[in-house]
Design goal:
Radius of gyration: 35 Å
CATH topology of the domain at 4-212: Hypothetical protein af1432
Oligomer: single chain
CATH class of the domain at 4-212: Mainly Alpha
Shape: extended
Number of strands: 21
Length: 745
């Protein structure tokens, strides 16, 4: 087994004689790479270099070279994508704010707003304080990704920065390899792939693999080298045969060999439990032709020359990948029965395949038409802004983004034959939110290939999908388990949060009005000049900024309405107002009576997120009930005498409020029943028929895991209107010969 030293990526000499001149030589190399810029742009670039060189003066890299060599290397990488002068200046300046104490204002004054915004987007949030390192990292990525959504050059410079850092990771202590390489593999490489930067994507994967698993990387490197030696004659033979066949068909093509990356080989071996010898598609050929028609013609020539393997053809020209990638893929049985993959594409497609969103600047530098490269990745970038708008927490934002970074995509069609790309596993609900957030919020169902399906129906490649909407439908918490995309998840959570806040505000206002009435005042002080100082003092007491915020906190259980109401008493007294004795006596009478009064919170089943009916006792209309105001959880309704409710009352009696049922609730409520049955054929069907005869609904059935015996215990959750309706269902069940006993639990 090779030693650790043998496997470590090579490190340059820390104190070479050329180190002192490295920065000047490197900038000269950068100038050689930016011939596509005009003289004024190069002069601006030189100014940025001088500023960065001065800012980093005295700083060195781990290998002893001046630190300025790193920003220059990042700029050279960006120049390979033909980025404009502003992006290259940002590449040179990208560490000045974070490492040198330079302020954004100074960069703004010297180099203009666009460069300052790019540099700021690349700067980590070291000056802010967070509770965990993970939260800091999530906030940093959120800032970077949002800057990227506004200007994609931010992420291009960031990826160039990470690429150079990975190339020089061998100079860093080995203890830091794992975290940096894992972060690169999990985050930066997927971002590069999502934006179509395939060359960058492959290099980041390879470098991460080499530092995470150096021994495995070394073993695979030797195996691929041996295989390459064995296959070199075969590849030369195939190239010759294909070139002759294409020339005979009048097609001028550039044939390029393509070798599967070591990390791709390793991942395939791991996922499919293969040995190296079982990986058959290590080598392939790229056929680059003049136009799209020749791609399909070349495909026909290849299929005449070699036998295509069934199920191994993919047309990514007609249906481009989500990151803009286009090519025809086919795998054929070549000479000696060796499987070889071919990719047919035009030169334009090849640029896009290698550079993705950066192809826009490649087109510009070559003076060609964009042909759509400028909009590559814009849908995903726009979705970042949508998700940010609906998400306040950085960790939650990053969770949404990670979903979209690994989009093993499926492609579906709208009824108008527009193509929509979604992650594998996406549902009808994801499709609806991809069309528009309003369509998603009111999605009631839909059709896939003409067949009606449920919201959770999973979509497959080639499906034709249409959506039905209903203005009465709105998102529910269950929808979160039925979506796959970060966009849909963020939209649903945002809707539920907005709804919860609105309901909490209304509920809190009613509760405070009720508490003030119990203190003898007919109403809350209105928002008038006379009461402005009073409200200011109450808000300072509660720690809230506005009345609505105070109402929301009361509705969510963060404030106790009765305590806030008592704060009004001395303040109203200062204004000369006194409690009404009649109201006070009514409140005391109501407190001593079990029956509901007009001051109770009335429930009819229309409450959504802020009122829940406890699963421990399943209250239904007709039951005597109480409401427990949980901290930040809204009101939980319990039956009087419920063991859980009584335990809560013993700890937090002040959190209980009076609640009552409306005269005509608008929906059914669930009651829990326990039925003891004499085992026999058809007894379960008889129970279901009896419940149906009572016009009730069976919501859930639990028969336990015990083996069959002479009797069985059945637990039912039954939907009923009220206690009278439940009594009717119980009477009908007790008449069944097979029912030995039934009771509500």
């Amino acid at each position: 087994m090779p030693s650790t030293a043998e496997l470590a990526p090579p490190s340059t000499s820390s104190h070479s004689a050329a180190a002192a001149n490295a920065s000047a030589a490197s900038f000269a190399a950068l100038v050689e790479c930016v011939g596509y810029l005009d003289a004024s742009d190069i002069e601006q670039l030189r100014r940025a270099y001088r500023f960065a060189d001065e800012a980093h003066l005295g700083q060195t890299r781990k290998n002893g070279e001046p630190y300025i060599t790193h920003p220059i290397a990042v700029a050279v990488e960006c120049a390979g994508w033909k980025l404009d002068a502003q992006a290259l200046m940002a590449a040179l300046l990208h560490d000045t704010i974070e490492d040198c104490g330079v302020e954004k204002r100074e960069i703004l004054e010297r180099f203009g707003s666009p460069v300052a915004e790019l540099v700021d987007g690349l700067t980590k949030l070291d000056k802010l304080h967070f509770t965990t390192r993970e939260q800091t990292q999530a906030e940093s990525f959120r800032k970077m990704l949002l800057a990227m959504a506004r200007d994609v050059r931010v992420i291009l410079v960031k990826l160039a920065d990470r690429t150079h850092n990975m190339r020089t990771l061998g100079d860093v202590p080995r203890s830091k390899w794992g975290r940096t390489a894992r972060e690169t593999l999990d985050i930066y490489a997927p971002i590069a792939h999502r934006l179509g930067l395939n060359r960058c994507y492959r290099e980041l994967q390879e470098l991460s693999f080499a530092h995470l698993f150096p021994w495995r990387h070394a073993v695979l490197t030797k195996a691929v080298k041996r295989a390459r030696t064995r296959r070199v004659d075969l590849i030369d033979l195939v190239k010759k045969e294909v070139h002759q066949a294409l020339s005979s068909a009048g097609i001028q093509a550039d044939l390029q060999g393509r070798e599967k990356s070591l990390f791709s080989i390793y991942r395939k071996m791991r996922q499919k439990h293969l040995s190296f010898s079982q990986v058959t598609d290590i080598y392939g050929l790229r056929v680059i032709v003049h136009d799209q028609l020749q791609c399909y013609t070349a495909l026909g020539v290849l299929h005449q020359l070699y036998k295509p393997l069934p199920g191994r053809f993919k047309d990514h020209i007609a249906i481009a990948k989500a990151n803009g990638y286009q090519s025809l893929h086919t795998t054929v049985a070549g000479p000696r029965s060796v499987s070889i993959e071919f990719q047919m594409r035009t030169e334009t497609m090849h640029w896009v395949a290698e550079a993705g969103v950066a192809a826009h600047w490649l087109y510009k530098a070559r003076g060609l038409k964009n042909e759509g490269a400028e909009v590559l990745g814009t849908q995903w970038l726009q979705s970042l802004l949508d998700i940010q708008r609906d998400t306040s927490d950085a960790s939650e934002f990053w969770d949404h983004i990670k979903i979209d970074l690994f989009p093993d995509a499926v492609y579906v069609f709208t009824p108008k034959n527009e193509i929509i790309a979604l992650p594998r596993g996406a549902t009808l609900l994801d499709f609806a939110y991809e069309i528009h957030s309003d369509v998603g919020d009111h999605c009631a169902g839909g059709e896939v290939n003409g067949q009606a399906v449920a919201l959770r129906a999973e979509l497959r490649n080639g499906d034709v999908v249409s959506v039905w909407t209903d203005s009465k439908v709105s998102p529910s918490p269950q929808w979160l388990s039925q979506v796959r995309t970060g966009r849909a998840r963020a939209k649903i959570r945002h809707h539920l949060k907005t709804l919860a806040e609105s309901e909490s505000r209304d509920l809190g206002q009613r509760m405070l009005e009720q508490a003030v009435r119990a203190e003898g005042f007919a109403r809350l002080p209105p928002q008038e000049d006379r009461y402005r100082a009073l409200w200011d003092r109450v808000l300072r007491f509660s720690g809230n900024r506005t009345r609505d915020e105070l109402f929301t906190d009361i509705g969510q259980g963060k404030r106790i309405a009765s305590i806030v109401a008592k704060r009004f008493l001395p303040l109203l007294a200062e204004l000369g107002e006194r409690p009404d004795p009649i109201l006070l006596s009514q409140a005391r009478f109501a407190a001593s009576e079990a029956d509901a009064t007009s001051d109770n919170l009335v429930l009819d089943g229309s409450e959504s997120t802020m009122v829940s009916y406890s699963q421990c006792c399943h209250p239904i209309p007709g039951d005597r009930i109480d409401g427990y105001l949980g901290r930040g959880e809204g009101i939980a309704v319990h039956r009087l005498g419920c063991a859980v409710g009584e335990r809560l009352r013993g700890k937090d009696a002040e959190r209980f409020i009076s609640v009552s049922w409306a005269e005509q609730p608008i929906r059914n409520f669930n009651a829990a029943l326990e039925v003891v049955l004499a085992n026999g054929r058809g007894v379960l069907a008889n129970v279901a028929q009896a419940v149906a005869q009572a016009e009730a609904d069976i919501v859930h059935v639990d028969m336990g895991n015990e083996p069959a015996a002479a009797s069985a215990q059945l637990r039912l959750l039954v939907g009923v209107r009220d206690t009278e309706h439940l009594d009717t269902a119980l009477r009908i069940l007790r008449r069944l010969p097979s029912v030995m006993g039934v009771e509500r639990i």
